[in-house]
Design brief:
By secondary structure, the chain is α/β, with parallel strands linked by helices. It has 2 helices and 8 strands; from the N terminus they run βββαβββαββ. It has helices at 39-48, 99-115, and strands at residues 2-15, 18-23, 26-32, 55-56, 62-64, 72-77, 120-123, 131-145. Strand 1 and strand 2 (18-23) form a beta hairpin. Helix 1 (39-48) runs parallel beside helix 2 (99-115). The longest helix is centred in the C-terminal third of the chain and has 17 residues, at 99-115. It is globular. The two termini are 13 Å apart.
Length: 150
């Protein structure tokens, strides 16, 4: 699984101009599920993301986590994180998981964020055409791949 984690002042997602999910200070997470990913991959991301110390403390140092600041999260499915652009000009998405498996692992991840104590976890709608708006804070953007985590 791959995740793009952005520290945000706010983020929201709309479907057909209707607000679907939003968060205040916290994380905007784009989550991609790849071929062969399992709950073990989601668990690796769940062990890392809520405790990433990328929020500033009183001294301006990145020492606080999402849990430390009681922040919120917006999680949006993003199969395009598995784009293969090595040939031609049109990306191939064959490395992304089939929709049924991807949705199951996406929902597992979202529930896991709630289970570890993230104050508010909201989502887009899996498979929908969504418009995402955010104000990146910093900017701070971290890219994680479960295959690279221990």
């Amino acid at each position: 699984m791959k995740a793009v984690v952005q520290r945000v002042k706010y983020a929201n997602v709309k479907i057909d101009n209707v607000l679907c999910g939003e968060c205040e200070q916290g994380f905007m997470i784009l989550l991609g599920v790849g071929q062969g990913d399992t709950t073990d991959d989601a668990d690796k991301l769940l062990k890392k993301i809520p405790v990433l110390r990328i929020f500033e403390d009183e001294n301006g140092k990145m020492n606080k986590s999402l849990l430390d600041i009681n922040g919120s999260a917006l999680v949006v499915s993003q199969f395009t994180l598995y784009a293969d652009c090595t040939h031609g000009r049109r990306p191939s998405f064959t490395d992304s998981a089939p929709p049924d498996i991807a949705n199951e692992l996406y929902e597992y991840f979202v529930q896991g964020m709630k289970n570890v104590g993230v104050r508010s976890v909201q989502t887009g709608r899996f498979g929908a055409d969504m418009a995402v708006e955010l104000l990146n804070d910093g900017p701070v953007t971290i890219i994680l791949d479960s295959k690279e985590l221990h």
